[in-house]
Prior knowledge:
Elements: H1 2-39, H2 49-55, H3 63-68, H4 71-101, H5 120-128, H6 135-160, H7 165-191, H8 193-205, H9 229-234, H10 246-258, H11 266-291, H12 293-298, H13 302-305, H14 314-338, H15 343-364, H16 371-395, H17 402-429, E1 432-433, E2 438-440, H18 448-451, E3 461-463, H19 487-498
Parallel strand pairs: 2-3
Antiparallel strand pairs: 1-2
Amino acid sequence: MLLVDYQALRDDERATTNSQAALASVFVALLAGLFAILVGDCRFRGASAAAARAQGSCYELAEPVYVVAPALPVAVLAYIVMLGTQITIKSFYMRAVENELRAYVPKPMAAIPAVTAASGTELLLAITSPRRGSRAYLVMLVYLVTTFIVALAGWLVFVSFKLGLGARLGMLLFYGPVLLLLIRQGFTVNTGGRALLRVAASKLADGGYPAMAALVPVPTRKVPGERSMWSYLLLPRPQDLIKWLFIPVAYVVGSLLVGPSATPAHLTALVGWLTFEYLLYQARYQWNDIRGLTDDINHPARQERGRLPTGRGTKFAVSTSILVIAVRMALAVTVALVVTPLTWPLLVAIGGVWVFAVAYEALRTQGSESMGRAVAIWLIVGAGYTLRTSFGLVLAGLVLDWHLAAFAVAAWSFGVMFVTLTWAIEATGHCFGGPDPLFYPPALRAKPHLFHLLRFTGSRITEVTSPPPPEALTIKPVSGRTSLTAPWNIGVLRACLIW
Length: 499
């Protein structure tokens, strides 16, 4: 059985490798065709375009032609990567078969004393493996793959700058995620062959692909009450949709300040708003969920919060979310580069969002329980509202002046108020009993941005020292009168004064 299996694999591998080589030739031919159609188009003639157009020696293809034209080369490239995945799995399986066969051939070969028979695949991988093979072979492989990707992606970017906004967005939304997926899969195939085989073997062992004699529905591993992965990736924080109003409100205010003649196109502002909220900020939320995965799993209101679902395993959830973060950020950067009026506002926003995100995560994971750390976290999270408001004002055409600075500080204060009110409610969700006294678990001290807010709720707080009473489900920490020194009161007062 081992010999029959090995021979069949060798024959199949040769056929698959030949198909991959033939497809590479087809891809190169299609890519040459893409560049050939640019030669006769007036829009790509540069300085000689006007003369060529006057002489009738060039043409102008419709924009949809350029949007659709790369679809076939991209499909061929996807098929090449798919065949590469098959080749990788087969090569590792062949190595496993060779290991079994060598048990029956203990003596080394006479012509190659260092090698035992049935070592052909491992002998080949000693040179061609990206991890352990020849450096020269790796350089040639990287050059080949990079040339393919750069040529195709370069064509898409070059052509998109000559087309209208609608055609640019169409190319971006259609080809951007596909190319990123191909790059990721190609990297996995060439550097993560062992992991790829391990996943395949695990799926087979776990019954993910049952035997023909036992075809039964595969049980789902979804945690009861948990969101589906697709729902999460589509919109990680649906409960935060209220925050999407900040940019439109700021845009309207900014338009009133600068006047209708200075306000940019509404379509451009719409694209900027969606890019900021749906691509940039949702990616930031996904990263926050990855960093706080352990806390979210153990959170008493896990189902209501709807954070990163882990029903299919933590590793799958994290890797899938990271891939979508990369796609979202790549799309956001592409929009910034393609839509010229949004270039600098979006690039500055991207930098600002991730600087504050890194600072927040760094503070959140420190060991200090001090009030100073809590205040720093409140201020950094409140800065997100400053970014939203400032971005909306800039979309409206407002330049850097005192209006923008005043609105930014007011939004910051409002953000601190908004966040601390929300977190005060969340903090009581970790507690028991109440309202007087309100028992908190010792683990809550590790979250000073929540713990210190309990002091402003008016309840006498006590650490749990015995089996806790029922959860504090009926407590309404911010519904009554609270101290004027509470951070939400200070924030709203300062925001109103600045306004």
